[in-house]
Design goal:
heterodimer; A: mainly alpha; globular; B: 110 residues; 5 helices; extended
Chain lengths: 243, 110
Amino acid sequence: MAFSTSKAAFWNGFRDGTPFLLVAMPFGMLFGVLAAEAGLDVLTALAFSLAVFAGTAQFTALQLLQEQAPTVIVLISALAVNLRIAMYSASLTPYLGAAPLWQRACAAYFTIDQSYALSIVKFEDTPDMTVPQRLAYFFGTCALIAPGWMLATVIGAHVGAQVPNSWGLDFVLPLTFLAMIGPMLRTPAHMVACFTAILCALPATALPFNLGLIVAGTVGMMAGAQTELWLERRLPPKPHEMT
Amino acid sequence: MTHLDPLTLWTVIIGLAIGSFALRFLFIGLVGSRAMPAWLMRHLRYTAVAVIPALVAPLVIWPTPTNGQFSTPHLAVACVTFAIGYWTKNVLMAGAVGAGLLIVVQMTLM
């Protein structure tokens, strides 16, 4: 459906984004809890969420900081796990690229899994949306999730300060990542990337400065990309089979 | 519990803030509507599915709660969590079951 005003588009995005609060809040709280366990106070944890606003990167950085990894490795690894936001940015560009620069800068900050996934479907399904309507929809999807993420971080940081060490929370972070990996493995190439990375990561822990992560991640990425190429050559896509 | 050096911590927070914004702004702000090279997009597609497992694998084989000693119960909890995530595509359910099993394991081991 087309929208009569940007306001209608905003509220449509707002409604579409609301259910994702149920996903964002528990992860935000978990980040707060683990940040508190790592010794961050509530304000620092909140500053972390406000400044970075990228869950995967925040979790990765927290883990590596606790492993006393060199700062450069922490930064590279945390940004690498979040390279998908660069893909989102690339994919949204044809729809939002004509907006004024300051609006694109705001949209960049709010580019997260949820806003991207909802918006790209909406923009593809509704080709006659104007650029201001698209931006309004996009910001609408984040209107609850962004403050929800910050609030959840604060709640989690308060809770985390009370949690005793014997609960084994150190292991919750790997579990969180494991839960996230499953749904990402959509194609055989994803599987190859994942299991190649795992096989490389174990011996690569012998490398100094936590470099093993970067080496194993890079090898996994290349394995995934090569598998995709190889599968494309063997099985050319047949659009008529898509029905 | 280790204590993080505030300078390192804030360097990471500020660096990640700038880096994450740069990643997000890179294309929408700077590239505009020009097409991206196919090889770059092909590698970007596999970054998360490669880097996250590479981060997790050593933590599962040498878990922190057992001070890095291999632990079959922790490996089992990890495998179940991954399997539920893979089959149900439901991150929250996988995380909840994993956390529940971890509590059982921790209570049994302690």
